[in-house]
Amino acid sequence: MINLILCGGSGTRLWPISRSLMPKQFARLFDGASLFQRTVKTNSRICSAQYIVSNAEQYFLAKDQLEEVGANDVRFLLEPVGRNTAPAIALACLGLDPEDIVLVSPSDHVIRKAEAYEECLRKAEEFAKKGFMVTFGITPTGPETGYGYIEANGEDVKRFVEKPDLETAKKYVASGRFFWNSGIFCFKAATFLDELSTYSPDILTAAKIAFANAKKENKDALVRVDHEDMMNIPSNSIDYAVMEKSAKVKVVPSDIGWSDLGAFDSLYGEFDHDENGNNINAKHLGIGSKNSLVLGGQRQICTIDLDNMLIVDTPDALLVAPLASSQKVKKVVDELKARGSDLPKVPQTVNRPWGTYSVLESSDRYKMKRIVVRPGERLSLQKHLHRSEHWVVVSGTATVTVGDKVFYVRPNESTYIPSGTIHRLQNEGKLPLVIVEVQVGEYTGEDDIIRVQDDYKRS
Fold it and tell me: Whose CA, among 5, 51, 61, 146, lies 20 to 30 Å from 368?
């Protein structure tokens, strides 16, 4: 069985922890591990291989996290833009053997009952071998209005229904016939493509063109889809495109301790709590505070007489709200986007294929960064039109290209790159290179980069 892991989505309801360049599946929420890493480890117990569908910006972030958990032999399909789950799954299945059994799983869900989950996977695999498409119906623990539902008669699906209002959800749960729709699926690659051909042929036709034109590298272990071809694929979910129409659908009832962590109120339940019901956080001092979720680890957080509150403290943004109102975080993100803020997109520390950079301070005409370059890596050969840069080496030895000159800069030494000058930073050493970069100019945005040559094939 091949685990097809979908890494799309920006997780806006978990802002400011989750950003477009560091969505919730890659955020290290639990003991230094991400939800993506936990998904890989959980499914690798029963799946023989992983196939990751991701956008191009998150490719190297995913690769780094896979290496940390020892998953190195992994296939990738990179989407230049998201077109929902049906096209993503179709593109991946076009690159597989038609008889391959595919387990489609989101990368940002929690599954607490591993043994029960593996038992459900075995049942799903048997259905898939017989030509069925399988969905996993989560045994509801209450009348949840944030999930879609599946009405079932045993293992036969009667219908899929949209997110209900509270009264309807109560009736669904009381009937015993309804399950939450988990977004986890299992089928043969050929079965999915055949059903897609029947019920959404426009998606399959466009996907075939996109896959045929895609750039394939490392013996097809890396597939890069062209932007125009991707945009030509109609956007639709697997539920609407296939599952709700097909007569070949089975459901596996699943009591597996599942959560999609769609908002902070669901995240609250994933942490250990102290005697006052607050999540355990060494940086939180609570006086008379109870039943609250307090996230942040860089500075001391002190609260007095809070009850059922949410506090999320990050280096560049602070969120405070009643925990019950956490579903409204998306409205904050939408407003920040409307104001032209980068906060919904860019975290303080940004992963790049060569290492990381962290914004230490930013103003109208200058920006300070801490840049870490991994051993053997180098940034693109590039220039900037609107800013100059000063580099100060903190540790390691930098190999610096400025114009036609190549030279070394060692700890406590610095160099200057004038605006418009072609330059490159490289680490030829065996230890990480750390520098402080000061940008000065009329504009210091990340899009002021003209790449002349790049090892990672970025534009």
Answer: 61
How far apart are alpha carbons 4 and 59 in whole angstroms? 15
Q: CA-CA distances (angstroms) from residue 339 to 17, 72, 132, 297, 344?
A: 20, 41, 48, 28, 11
Closest among 369, 371, 419 to 395, alpha carbons compared: 371
Residue-wise pLDDT for 108-124, tens only, equals: 889 999 999 999 999 99
Strand partners, 369: 359, 437
Task: Give the separation between CA 47 and CA 5, rounded to whole angstroms.
Answer: 11
Alpha-carbon distance of 326 to 265, in angstroms, equals 6
Token pair listed for 400: 């610096």
- The whole-number pLDDT of residue 261 equals 84
Which domains are seen in the chain, by residue range?
2-259 (3.90.550.10), 265-329 (no CATH), 349-453 (2.60.120.10)
Q: Check: CB of residue 386 under 8 Å from CB of residue 364.
A: no
* Residue 113 in tokens: 């009952």
Tokens 């309801």 sit on residue: 13
Q: What is the dihedral of CA 124, 130, 135, 141, to 10 degrees?
A: -50
pLDDT at residue 146 is higher than 90: no
Lookup: tokens for 106: 């989101």
Q: Who contacts 400 (Cβ-Cβ below 8 Å, separation ≥6)?
A: 391, 406, 407, 408, 409, 415, 423, 424, 425, 426
Predicted TM-score of the model (pTM): 0.84
What's the confidence (pLDDT) of residue 12? Answer: 81
Identify whether 143 is preceded by a cis peptide bond (ω within 30 of 0).
no
- Please list the residues that pair with 137 across neighbouring strands: 181, 253
Segment 301-320, tens digit of pLDDT? 999 999 999 999 998 899 99
User: Would the CA dihedral through 125, 131, 136, 137 be positive or negative?
Assistant: negative
In tens, the pLDDT along 378-406 reads 999 999 999 999 999 999 999 999 999 99
Q: How confident is the model at residue 334 (pLDDT cuts 50, 70, 90)?
A: very high
pLDDT digits (tens, 9 = 90+) for 234-248: 999 999 999 999 999
**CB-based contact 134:251 (threshold 8 Å):** yes
Which tokens is 373 given? Answer: 């370059």
Pairwise CA distance, residues 46 & 57, whole Å? 29
- Please name which of 345, 349, 346 lies closest in space to residue 370, comparing C-alpha atoms: 349
Start-to-end Cα distance in the chain: 35
